[in-house]
Amino acid sequence: MLKKIAYILMGLVALLVLSIAIGQGPYVEIPADVELGKEYEFPGEAAIAEETAQLMINSIEERHKNDDLTLRDAHPFAHGCVRGSFQVQSEVPASMRHGVFAAAGSYPVWIRFSNGGVKRKPDIEGDIRGMGIKLIGVPGPKVGPEKNTQDFLVITNPVMPAGDPGEYLELFKAAIGGKPMGYFLGGMPWDWKLSAFRKVIQIRSREIPSMLSTRYWSTVPFRLGETAVKYSVRPCEGAPNAERAMPEYPGDNYLRETMVEQLGEENACFDFMVQAQVDPRLMPVEDPAVDWDEALSPFVTVAKIEIPAQTFDTPAQHRFCENLTLNPFNSLEAHRPLGALNRVRKQVYDRIAEYRLKKNAVVRTEPTGAERFE
Ligand code: HEM
User: Fold this and answer.
1) Mind giving me the DSSP string for 231-271?
2) Residue 71 belongs to a domain
3) Ligand 1 centroid vs 15 CA: distance in angstroms?
4) 108 C-alpha to center of ligand 1: Å?
5) Fewest CB within 10 A of the end CB: N or C in the chain?
6) Cα–Cα distance measured from residue 358 to residue 70, given in angstroms and rounded to the nearest whole number
7) Domain count, the chain
8) Does residue 344 line the site of ligand 1, with CB under 6 A?
9) With a 6 A CB cut-off, is 219 part of the ligand 1 pocket?
10) How far apart are CA 15 and CA 240, in angstroms?
């Protein structure tokens, strides 16, 4: 009897190991002669992008059909928008001196901090968090609709749960249908997406004491000169926002409250860092579920983001924040987004932004950096 139980247990463990191995990816078939910085089309990519966009339009339409205000379909709840400056450093390595990093200088920025989840829930519950950085007064040819801005979008995890746009579409479908677990653990054990599931657990269990005291990553790559890079944003060493303990009794909106308290008293500072792709296999362009190892290619600080002490938690400023459109394709050609997931985003962000601004009777405008609401 005991032997039988042992065999069954061993069988289950073997199944689990097999499904973890299968679930690891890589998701995208990479050719043997893969090149640095090169993009590879995913099979059926255009149809997947269209279906993803339509799914999101339907979702936002359905969710807000009885509301006065239509929110974003992802990252709908903002902790706040704050103003600051993006100061490109003078000692940027020559290979990285492209686009806004070409020369030392300072750009005004608006930064929107958000929770990723589509449902409002207490901040203490696990979620991905976002930082949308909009540089203003950036001249030069652009990929997307805005002519004067450069946006950088980063989140509180180094990798995405899934790397391929088809997987992502299935994940969105399950999440929008209210059954996300169906994506991860649906079907037979060999169909389980255990690698993606592990990453989601990692994301959701990350403790975030403050939006100003945590690290962010782009997860997906971007062009920079001849190479592909990822971005990361980290509190500056020694800055007042560098260290922060979790609140003892975190309220439902503790992330906004903590930021109000921190910026009510002191300035905040972040390093904006760039990591160059040096190996096309170990650091793939087409699979954002793979972490680019910092031991192979370290992040280099190319700019400082300075956020002066300020009051930002006002109804007028929140309204302004709602009407901003942050989009990775609000970008110089020099920083063009790369990879299949980014190409899907190209189909989605603009359409969602157009839709919600129209529903809210707002004319799309680019900020000037001179807006003040206090
Ligand atoms: C197929 C993949 C993705 C889809 C379909 C998607 C979709 C969206 C949508 C619809 C919005 C709201 C846009 C608006 O209404 O203006 C949004 C916002 C956002 N997304 Fe994604 N996203 C994807 C991947 C990513 C990735 C890889 C990141 C990593 C940095 C990311 C970070 C963000 C952030 C930070 C925001 C909030 C921007 C803001 O504050 O306005 N997304 N996303």
Assistant:
1) EEEEEPTTSTTS--PPPSS--TTHHHHHHHHHHHH--EEEE
2) yes
3) 35
4) 22
5) N
6) 9
7) 1
8) yes
9) yes
10) 49
Instruction: Supply the DSSP string of 318-330, one letter for each residue.
Output: HHHHHH----TTS
Q: Is residue 39 part of a domain?
A: no
Atom 25, ligand 1: which residue's CA is nearest? 345
Q: What atom of ligand 1 comes closest to residue 72's alpha carbon?
A: 15
> What is the tens place of the pLDDT at every residue in 277-307?
999 999 999 999 999 999 999 999 999 999 9
- Per-residue b/e over 179-209, b at no fewer than 16 CB within 10 Å? ebeebbeeeeeeebbbbbbebbeebeeeebb
Confidence band (pLDDT; 50, 70, 90) for 30? confident
Identify the pLDDT of residue 51. 96
Which of 153, 211, 321 has the most ligand 1 atoms within 8 A of CB, as the residue to mutate?
153
Q: Is the CB of residue 194 below 6 angstroms from any atom belonging to ligand 1?
A: no
- Residue 38 is assigned to a structural domain of this protein: no
Identify the residue whose C-alpha is closest to ligand 1 atom 15. Answer: 72
Of the candidates 270, 199, 273, 286, the one whose C-alpha atom is nearest the C-alpha of residue 230 is 273
The alpha carbon of 35 and the centre of ligand 1 are apart by a number of angstroms equal to 27
Q: Which atom of ligand 1 is nearest to the CA of 75?
A: 37
Q: Whose CA is nearest to atom 43 of ligand 1?
A: 74
Return the ligand 1 atom nearest residue 218 CA: 30
Amino acid at 254: Y
Where is pLDDT greater, at 9 or 370?
A: 370
User: Which residue segment(s) compose the domain that 316 sits in?
Assistant: 64-157+206-359
Q: Quick check: 151 and 134 in contact, CB under 8 A?
A: yes
In a domain, 200, yes or no: no
**CA-based angle 306:372:146, to the nearest 5?**
75
CATH classification at residue 68:
2.40.180.10
Q: At what angle do helices 340-359 and 165-176 cross, to 10 degrees?
A: 40
- Evaluate: CB of 208 within 6 angstroms of ligand 1: no
